[in-house]
Specification:
Blueprint (H helix, E strand, L loop, with lengths): L2 H8 L2 H17 L2 E5 L2 E5 L1 H13 L6 H26 L3 H6 L1 H6 L6 H12 L5 H6 L5 H11 L4 H31 L4 H7 L5 H14 L4 H52 L4
């Protein structure tokens, strides 16, 4: 970023004023929780801020220039949170070492997008877009991997970009809601969910761990430490996992599912000549 651009962002007083007001309003509302069956859904100020900010984008209060200036500020805010997490990890280093195998094996959870989302995408009629959509959670390194292998104009690139945009807009809110709900519904330990929240996205990790901390405040330091360490591992190894395991597996499964679907279609046409 050039110095001129940085000065323009810092001097955008309307943007800072709108953000400050949103923060004040959402913090005044505070945390709200309600029961859904045996579990609890936690609504944090972040959720309110997302809804209010999105609504204001369609009003004269927020213009396109302000929206563009807000993007690097989001990165800056997440960077500060990551720094805080790094400081928190230090005192919990012994617990992290003790949980070493679990932290490493949590990478296997990345295969969940393949085994759960790929069959659904094929069933809904997506073609090769489903490879880009489901080989991972579709963050920046994965976008680069797909574009580099298949090209920017490929169906796979369109698929991964769709998931990237959707995840950027809704991913943090979704993980923030689902993490607290599952942690209060299932018998799984909260630290397991903390490790699972480190998906390789700073904003998603912060949202999920924040919800867990709100549900289990006595485990705050451990949750933050495990989530941060897990996220760091996902950032460091996630791309290689996608290159050598995730993407080849997705392509193989897509080929098998597509062939099976095509055979069923041909068989159905043979049985019913009117089709």
């Amino acid at each position: 970023m050039e110095k001129a651009d940085l000065r323009g962002i810092l001097k955008d007083w309307r943007l800072h004023a709108v953000v400050f007001i949103i923060v004040c309003v959402t913090e005044a509302i505070g945390q709200f929780s309600f029961k859904v069956g045996p579990g609890v859904i936690l609504l944090l100020p972040m959720v309110y801020a997302f809804i209010i900010g999105l609504a204001l984008f369609f009003t004269p209060l927020v213009n396109e220039k302000m929206a563009k200036n807000a993007e690097p500020l989001i990165v800056l805010g997440v960077t500060l949170l990551i720094a805080k997490i790094g400081v928190t990890i230090g005192p919990q280093i012994e617990a992290l070492i003790a949980a070493g195998p679990a932290l490493v094996l949590q990478e296997i959870g990345n295969l969940g997008t393949i085994f759960f989302a790929l069959p659904l995408a094929v069933l809904l009629g997506f073609k090769r877009e489903s490879i880009g959509m489901t080989h991972s959670i579709g963050r920046e390194p994965n976008v680069g991997l797909i574009v580099n292998k298949f090209g920017f104009d490929s169906p796979e690139a369109r698929g991964v970009m769709a998931v990237y945009i959707f995840g950027t807009v809704f991913g943090a809110v979704f993980l923030g809601l689902i993490a607290g709900f599952l942690a209060t519904t299932t018998p799984i330990h909260p630290l397991s969910f903390a490790m699972a929240s480190g998906v390789g996205s700073g904003s998603m990790m912060v949202a999920a761990s924040g919800s867990l901390v709100a549900a289990f405040p006595e485990l705050e330091d451990q949750i933050v430490a495990f989530a941060g360490a897990s996220n760091l591992l996902s950032l460091g190894t996630g791309l290689f996992f996608s290159i050598f395991v995730g993407l080849p597996l997705t392509e193989k499964l897509y080929t098998l599912m597509s062939n099976r679907k095509n055979r069923k279609s041909v068989t159905h046409k043979g049985v019913n000549p009117n089709v």
